[in-house]
Amino acid sequence: MKFTAQFSVPRIDVVAYRSALDKHMAHAIAQGLVVWLEAILAEIPVWSGASRATFTKLASHISYSIPIAPVAVDRIGMGQASSDGGMVTDKQTGEYSFTYSTTLPWLIWNEYHNANVEPDPSLFYRVIKEGPYNFQAVGARAFLRFADNVDLLPVKPHLRAARVKS
According to the model, what pLDDT value does residue 25 have? Predict the structure, then answer.
């Protein structure tokens, strides 16, 4: 007996999938950053604007506007100068992340202390919102809730069948 058959071997269009995945993940990390920013900003009041201004460098990567309206002395520039933030969206390595850091003394103090009970030694006034702010933990929880719902793109639209004769 003689049998002939045609087999199809799946081939993934890796270039197309990687491009689509890059767009998807870049959008997802930007959305995750919005969720993170909104969660942490809910914890940080505006007095001089310095604390909230520490997030402007990071927010600028996604064109997100930080609501800052100082009610006292304007220290927005001080907050911006005391911080750093960035995003990584690297298609080649598959890294999609953001980073934030600050050296603003009273934001760091208020993150861990109730400044009305344990005053910041470098300041002399009472705070609007008693700490500790715990904005890092609040932001992490919000981001992780969001990230739990982010999936990778399906591969199926990027599969091609290549026929193999026997």
Answer: 96
pLDDT score, position 118: 72
In this prediction, residue 16 has a pLDDT band, given cuts at 50, 70 and 90, of: very high
The tokens describing 85, both together, are 């933030």
Higher pLDDT, 77 or 8: 77
Bridge partner residues of 98 (DSSP): 87
| SS3 assignment, position 142 | helix
Site of tokens 């999609």: 96
Strands 159-165 and 95-102: unpaired
Buried b (16+ CB within 10 A) or exposed e, 31-49: ebbebbbebbbebbebbbb
CB 62 within 8 A of CB 34: yes
Q: Which residues pair with 83 in a beta bridge?
A: 102
d(CA 54, CA 6): 63
Query: For residue 54, which amino acid is it?
Result: T
Return the structure tokens found at 96: 């999609």
Which residues does residue 97 pair with via DSSP β-bridges, in sequence order? 88
What is the pLDDT at residue 36? Answer: 98
